[in-house]
Design goal:
The chain has about 525 residues and is of the alpha/beta class. Helix content is about 50%, strand content about 10%. Helix 12 links the parallel strand 12 and strand 13 (about 375-380). The two termini are about 30 Å apart.
Length: about 525
Amino acid sequence: MANYQETVQQSRTTTEQHSTWHAINPEYVARMRLQNRFKTGLDIARYNAAIMRRDMAEYDKDPANYTQSLGCWHGFVAQQKMIAIKKHHKTTDKRYIYLSGWMVAALRSEFGPLPDQSMHEKTAVSDLIEEIYTFLKQADARELDLLFTELDKARAAGDKAKEQDILQQIDNFQTHVVPIIADIDAGFGNAEATYLLAKKMIEAGACCIQIENQVSDEKQCGHQDGKVTVPHVDFLAKINAVRYAFMDLGVDDGVIVARTDSLGAGLTKQIAYSVTPGDLGDQYNSFLEGEEITDLSQIQSGDVIVNTNGKTIKPTRLPSNLFQFRKGTGFDRAVLDCVTSLKNGADLIWIETEKPHIGQIKEIVDKIREQVPNAKLVYNNSPSFNWTLNFRQQVFDAWQAAGKDVSAYDRTKLMSAEYDESDLAKEADDRIRTFQKDAAAQAGIFHHLITLPTYHTEALSIDTLAKGYFAESGMLAYVKNVQRQEIRNGIACVKHQNMAGSDIGDNHKEYFAGEAALKASGKDNTMNQFA
């Protein structure tokens, strides 16, 4: 943050050069400049890329320095998240925002709610990045505006100690603008399309882009069936396209997250191009399911024949014209994907798993680190997992393996509420509580995110409000469960006019028109009831 007094002096130097600018107050200019620290999305991208690089280096030194984010589908949601983080934790360090393609599809498409299959408008992603940063910058402006108001009050009261304290707070102000890890799905087309969209995302402020190795026009949610991967050369072309986009725009240290869906994907649309045995294409093809050809009579019309892994095979071809991988090869394919991506320009990896199990994640990452020792993982703490059931089953299995009596529990029914206060459930909850810390230390996870938390919290809070409001509780359902809780917990949004910028606007009116300004924040403003 620029020094307040220095910024005032710089503004004064400029205004004094113009004899007709006598109505322009240099201190007001300084305030507006500090409230608008980031002039462009590229300023934001460069600033946050440096933060992510610093955080990655700190994680390499100590895995306790892992980072976290929550998925946000609207600028207001992201703004309130960061305001809450600053209020409760006093710092935004190592707290990011995740922009989920799933939530863009489900909540931001002009087509209406869509499945996570890259059917939404491409620019809905970059538009949301810009929207989020607009709201985060407004959070900066609002908080600084409150400090400026307090500064004026301290000066009017002649309280020099208070004045110096507020000036120090202004000079040490920490922005709400934090890195966004932005989901570009499978690139929305060919590599040129990926490059063009990546540029739009970076221009909007993205310092980190996540891309996955699925076929763009067959893209599926990572937690659904029917996923189809592409040969490595196709995926690397898109990683290169994203890197070119970063460098084209002067964000040379932009971060790329390469996601593999191979652990759960059993299909490919293409046979990989191969020149020599053991090359990358041959390694990809070696995982194909197929019938070994020992006689030319085995070949039928339309069959595709591949020589791989020392054998000539007829790959299993489905009516969809897709080819099938051998069952049980997902682990090895995921490892090869990650190693290949990290050796060819990606900075971080994302392995989409079917359950939150530290042992499984660690096994994969350990294998990757045999070839890339500093490999770091972005991990989806997905709401698609039944966390309660998964961890109760993990504890059940651990207890059983240790010879502990588990006869009081039915493993198939551990989700039942009857177990909620049991010792098993308590240990499972404790493992969930420490999952991120433990996985960061043991399984190379640099960044923990939850893709859809605000989607679910919105649904739950509306259900609670609607249940009471449209029944006998009436207004009490809102007052008791919403407004009173906002007041008790110091939620700034209880003064929603202020949150929307009314007080900033009033101050600007005074900058522009002096005593002639028509302001909204007088004695008859009902927001004063919440002072």
